[in-house]
Amino acid sequence: MERKVKVAAVSYLNTKPLLFGFRNHPVMDMMELSVDYPAKIGQQLIDGIVDVALVPVAVIPKMKEYHIISDYCIGAEGPVASVCLFSDVPLHDIKRIYLDYQSRSSVALLKLLVKDYWKLDVEFIPTTGDYEGNIKGTDAGLVIGDRAFLQRKVSPYIYDLAEHWIRYTSLPMVFAAWISNKPLPVEFIQQFNNANGIGINNIPAVVAENPYGEYDLTTYYVKNLSYPLTPSKKQGLNKFLWYLQQ
Ligand SMILES: C=C(O[C@@H]1C=C(C(=O)O)C=C[C@H]1O)C(=O)O
């Protein structure tokens, strides 16, 4: 490729381990990096504004062409902590649910669980900006990313969507993956993958440079999130994409 590869990543704490190794890495000579919230970078990849992005996997069915280019993803094999339905009342008393405008995968996952697993009769309310203050009474809300850690301290009922997906399907959940909208040089992909892995193998160093008081990041990076895109995660991803087509 003549020009630099345009890469977009998620701007949350969950992505710090994946980005840790890019600083001073030779792959940076081949690419430029930007960050934003997941729904935004999903649209950038669909629109061709970027070549590669850590996109919500729920955007895959909207792409004309896609290639999974990395052995790493944002996944979970148990409770993820940062993708939850927050409520003042128990699940079956919820009347309406605010959807997180920053999310695509978790919104699709929530709708799937509500309809097929929990079988709730609720109204969904789309959002475009701050809405967490509206989560009260029988109005619940989906909140993802770093903002979920703040909401964990506010809402008495917390339903972890990765945990419930795993209970429902017995498969891990993949929320986001590094996806390109065109074929890319093998040399770039190898270097990109190498850069991804550095932080994953150095979690204490990632935690040390990201002081955070709301949640224990070692727990988050080691126990909640699971980054390697293993065969069982690919199975989980395929199952999720299958549900999206239904
Ligand atoms: C675990 C998370 O995974 C994410 C959830 C996404 C989504 O819902 O579309 C997309 C990217 C990831 O940031 C999180 O944001 O907390």
TrEMBL record:
What processes in GO biological process is this protein linked to? menaquinone biosynthetic process
Might you give the EC number(s) for this enzyme?
Answer: 4.2.1.151
Keyword hit for Cytoplasm = no
Q: Per the record, what are the reactions this protein catalyses? A: chorismate = 3-[(1-carboxyvinyl)-oxy]benzoate + H2O
Taxonomy, superkingdom: Bacteria
Q: Which GO terms describe its molecular function?
A: hydro-lyase activity
Write out the entry's keywords from A to Z. Lyase, Menaquinone biosynthesis
Which InterPro entries did the record assign? Menaquinone_biosynth, MqnA
- Determine if Signal is one of this entry's keywords: no
Pathway the protein contributes to: Quinol/quinone metabolism; menaquinone biosynthesis
Supply the enzyme class, top level.
lyase
Similarity-based family: Belongs to the MqnA/MqnD family. MqnA subfamily.
Q: What does this protein do?
A: Catalyzes the dehydration of chorismate into 3-[(1-carboxyvinyl)oxy]benzoate, a step in the biosynthesis of menaquinone (MK, vitamin K2).
- PANTHER family in alphabetical order: CHORISMATE DEHYDRATASE
Protein name, entry field: Chorismate dehydratase
Its ancestry begins with: Bacteria, Pseudomonadati, Bacteroidota, Chitinophagia, Chitinophagales
